[in-house]
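[#protein-structures] MJ: dropping Oxysterol-binding protein-related protein 9-like here for a structure pass
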Amino acid sequence: MSFGTRHREAETGLVPSVQDFDKKLSEADAYLQILIDQLKLFDEKIKDCKEDESRRKIENLKETTCSMVESIKHCIVLLQIAKDQSNEQQHANGLI
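AK: finished. structure tokens for Oxysterol-binding protein-related protein 9-like:
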């Protein structure tokens, strides 16, 4: 969601729906999968790399990317948990 979108929501008072949230969560999951697929390509680059310095740089980049992927996975799981808890709370309050 861009800053402009958030700004418009603040002006209009519109709050994204659960469906919007689910859509964004699915998009994040799809982008995560693309990143994971790209991460696998590092192994080929490392294997094919002849220069030690270049190999170390690629290995460092792979390690950093792995850490980022794990953080993103954790964030997506936390968002899913928050959504589930919100749904449970709405059920308990009779809103759903």
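MJ: nice. The chain has a mean pLDDT of 85.
AK: one more thing. The longest helix spans residues 52-92.
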